[in-house]
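FAQ: What does a multi-protein file look like?

Like this. Sequence, then tokens, then the next protein.
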Amino acid sequence: MTLLNQIIKIIRKEFKKLPDKRDKKHLKYTIEDIATSAFSVFYFQSKSWLDFQRNMLGRAGRSNAKSLFDIDSIPSDNHIRDVLDDISIEKLQPIFDKVYKLLLKKETLKEYEYFDNTIMVLLDGTHYHSSKKIHCEHCQARERTDAKGSKYTEYYHSAITPIIAHPKSNKVLPLFPEVISNKDGQEKQDCEINASKRWLDREHQISKYYKLLLLGDDLYCKTSLIKKVREKEHNYIFVCKETSHKKMYETINYVQKLEELDTKVVSKINKSRKKEIYHYKYLNEVNLTGDKDSIKVNWCSIEVKNEKDKVVYSGAFATDYLIDEHNIEKIVEAGRTRWKVENENNNTLKTGGYNLEHNFGHGKKGLSEFLFTLNIFSYLTHTICLIHDDKYKELYGLINNRKTFFGHITTFSTFFYISDWIELFNKMIEGYVDGLHLN
């Protein structure tokens, strides 16, 4: 059994537990077939894939929905949306937990350890739906002004999309997201901070085995969130800008004028084989705010200059790790890894074939959030396949583009009946390498 088969077995078992308000006497489709059908659309990233499988089932009496996902009966798109609209995404967290339990068993997360028994979790908020007309009871709302000066209400959805990442890996692992609902208010800062606190309050499979190192941009460098992180006995490294921490920087600048800031200068060779000079500064036990009960954090900064003495990068961070000359480079490296949540997660989900901002179905209750979470889970599944499934990796390596990859496997599984995943990948690899000859 491939790892992908194991994952599908896990999700069907958990989908079977989903609440179902339909009349049990007249059920044509099981709840697990309905939810798995929705997942299959996101796995192939093709909103018409189920239509093709219905046609195949009608013509040949068999379909790839059954052979690949064990779906006995394929419901209509409208029926899928109607049933899933009533289900809270809280019911999907066990699926993430069970899959991460599988990854823990396979020791996948050992490759993501940064400090001893510590894994980086990157936090960031993203929008995934906006409309002037379409909205549901979970939508947020804000007033906008169009090009003609007319005011209108924009309805939108957003969420925190945490990921596991490592500076040396280009594969990020999505975690269960935290939606930002209308009850959180309309201020971005409040929404993201509150959602992050709720995410930290959840029981996560990984936090049972690893300490978490939370990374985030300057928005997250706030007293209330830092206290929540420490309450959960995790660590943090947050971007810390002078523009939003003026009192703190008054102290830092004063110490710098006295020439009492700790410093370290290191020469390194970049990927282009060019020399760069890294200038580190750090100060421990500095007040985050000017309040009398301010918490203390440890601060550091980095300025990278090229051979012409031009600054090519600069940044600053606050952390609870005590900084010294031995760990300053690693702390800064971790802080700079924060960009992966935007570039390798959110941007991939929006532009790399996942169409995160597309309205797959909005519903009146929780449908938009449910489908959004399934899309996140499909990204996790694809990443796991890229790590562990040799045939998946081989095929993807031949194509090397997510959108093209999804398009090709959708086309192949549309025209041909496939007995299992191994046959699908083997046949496609054969076609790419030698040319597929049909009888």
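And here is the next protein:
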Amino acid sequence: MELTLQNVGIINKTTIELNGLTVICGSNNSGKSTAGKALYAAIESLCNLEEKLHNELVLNYRRALMSVSRILDLTSVNKYVDFNRLDEEYHKNFSLLAVGVLSFRKMPEYDNIVEAYISLKEAVEILSPQLLFDFATKRKSDLPKKFFSFLDNFNESKEKALSFLGGLNKYYYNANIHDFSEKSVAALFSIEFDGQVFPVNKKTKERKSTVVISKNGEKGCTLSIYEKKDITAVVNERKTFLNNAIYIDDPYALDRLARVDEYSYIYRSSQDDYSHFGKLSRLLMKKNSSLIESSINKENYNSIVSKLSDVIPGTLSIRDSGIYYEETNREPLKVQNLATGSKMFSIIKNLLEKGEINFDTMLILDEPEAHLHPEWQNVFAEIIILIVKEFNAHVLLTTHSPNFLMAIEAYSKKYGISEKSNYYMAKRNNDGNTVDYICVNDSLSMIYSSFTQPLVEVKQLKDN
């Protein structure tokens, strides 16, 4: 599989082969993270589109329900109207509208979210001042003036609610996967790059970035991302050849994990779930696999986990009070207090135990050795190589460490995956503003030399 990037951030035009293990080296600000983010965004934005579209509509439906509930303001009169009787005789959504922001607790499950949206519209259309009056829980003489004032203004509120829902018709009645895929690509690239996907070189006239994923000459996806007023995307093909991408660039991700507030999904952006941190959070917070899946996973990764357990023998557990690292004969330790290097090992171990890393996975690791002692760098390098060998997974990693690179090279030879290993080095172009990546499989000495030069310079300074 190949990844081609053109005019993406600092990257001019480069093609990187992704066939097992891919290592990118280069100085700071040479686009290494850019390549990883672009690869992650291309794969993740086009995976499981039907499911994502459904989830997007479900989230929108819940927000719409909250908005309509606020417009109608039925909560102000729910103690005067028997909404449960209304539900029984007319429609099941009246009581949902009446309890307002708490309505998600009673929200029914819909296999067809369009059906749920139509049901909500029908409920609003049926409601009328007369219907509310007919189902009042008190005699007319006992009803307060504010109730009658509410009825006098209800039709105006109803028109506002129907107008609001009418604006959503096109999304529910004409949901199109291709249109959604382009919105998905634009949104995720915008999140991953914080809106700055485009060439850093001001002399580049065309504000367009291109990402292509291909395999054996077959183009799987071609993404053209344009900068106008907002980021837009054109997707010519949608096949990414893989259905899972995981990007890990920060072991402190464990510290930021928290129990999700029960109302938070109403207000957050759905795309946040698919950002690299959002996705990693969901995977780490997920419950463990079934017994059968766990047994299969253990058979597949037993040798890897045993090596991981030599470094980090405990496991992560999720409690109401937070996330803990638990080890036999030791007090549970909050992950915030776990050593930084141990956090990276814990993340990988957790993902392996849950079966999230497999043949269909692109695992992207941005300088994973940064917080590791050279001894643990060697162990981590061996684990990465075993993941590629045992699971046929794909790994793209960036590094600044000569020790880590040497360990990667040595273990790839030991475990016989040298032919599935590719090494790239950033080369700055003559314009001084852009880089390309050159394959150095046959000349790794170029990378080692770039690592050694700063050491030579500082040694000379020390000697002098």
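Q: Is there any per-entry metadata?
A: Some entries carry free-text notes. For the entry above: The longest helix spans residues 49-72.
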